[in-house]
Amino acid sequence: LEKEEKYVTEQRDKEYKKLIEKYYTYLWEEYEKLQDKDKDKVRKPSSEDLPLTVLQSVKVYIASLRKIQVGDKLSGRHGNKGIIAKILPEEDMPYLPDGTPVDIVLSPLGVPSRMNVGQLLETMLGWAAKQLNVQYVTPPFDGATEEDVKNEIRKAKEYLKKKGVPEKYLPDDNGKITLYDGRTGEPFMEKCLVGYMYIMKLVHMVEDKIHARSTGPYSLVTKQPLGGRAHFGGQRLGEMEVWALEGYGAAYTLQNFLTIKSDDVEGRKKIYEAIVNGEPLTYTGVPESFKVLVKELQALALNVEFLARKYKIKETTKQGIKVKKKEE
Questions:
Q1: C-alpha pair distances (Å), 142 with each of 67, 99, 134, 165
Q2: Are residues 41 and 79 in the same domain?
């Protein structure tokens, strides 16, 4: 019997040894891969990599720490990206019934528009994992269902109840709980989903993107301001921005943006002079984009011309009606 036990023990030791060797080999391969990555960063390029006029090239990677600020971009793991709207002191943040302040508040409007409910399930499961002190692995599309997540929340609640945590400090089965306004102390009208979620800081930071201009370079073809911070360009006013201004009925603002602040060359010159001389602003000239459209139509063998037409203005006086002729 002793010999048999000794044999079994030896076999088990051999199996363990093989496993350890296999794991060691895997770790060594991973380590070498990481070393190779670093080698790429510091490798000296060969003469073939360099342009003809360059004798030697040195690339330096500089890492810097930056404090997070309003305008920096954050993202979750479900395409739920967004920029920071406000940074508040800890005491002003919404807090849980037990007094714990939340770290970050996300807008609920970011869920229905992108239809990524994974962020909600991750938050719920994150809360359960934190309370039960376990880790969950759920593959995308084939992982935990909504019911599975709710079951884990129930388990976590039962565990906390046994530990003596009062019911009022626990969320419902959907992970929702009443939050309190940190500034007034009053509860919010609706319950909020509270949990744990992976949040990453993206490379798009406001410090690198901030840009403003009054006048600057213009495109030779369209006579509109150039695009992009690198070219000291203007802000793009797209279709959706135009729709927003139309929705507000901001006619004069829209006229400003689409003429003198864009491609009405004559108009912007006169408006600049009027501002400098303190005179009232007048709108004149035709946007260059209209002229470009006319040229394109002429290229399609359509003889389109911009004609001035005469119109009459009736002016009432004490003696009667005086008629003025004007050209448009």
A1: 38, 37, 20, 34
A2: no
pLDDT band at 165 (very low <50, low <70, confident <90, very high): very high
Q: What share of the chain is helix, strand, coil (3-state, %, to 5)?
A: 40, 10, 50
Q: What is the CATH number of the domain that holds 134?
A: 2.40.270.10
Cα 204 from Cα 229, distance rounded (Å):
14
Tell me, what's the pLDDT at 16? 85
Is residue 149 packed enough to be buried (19+ CB in 10 Å), middle (13-18) or exposed (0-12)? buried
For 75, the enclosing helix (H) or strand (E) is strand 73-75
Q: pTM of the entire structure? A: 0.67
**Does residue 194 share a domain with residue 85?**
yes
pLDDT digits (tens, 9 = 90+) for 8-56: 777 788 888 888 888 888 888 888 888 776 666 656 556 667 788 888 8
* 187-206 burial: b if 16+ Cβ within 10 Å, else e: eeeeebbbbbbeeeeeeebe
Structure tokens at 213: 């201009």
Condensed to tens digits (0 to 9), the pLDDT of residues 58-114 reads: 888 888 899 999 999 999 999 999 999 999 999 999 999 999 999 999 999 999 999
Query: What is the CA 79 to chain-centroid distance, rounded?
Result: 9
* Side chain identity, residue 111: V
Domain total for the chain?
A: 3
Give CA–CA dist 95/181, Å, rounded: 7
User: What DSSP character marks residue 234?
Assistant: B
The residue range of the domain holding 265 is 237-327
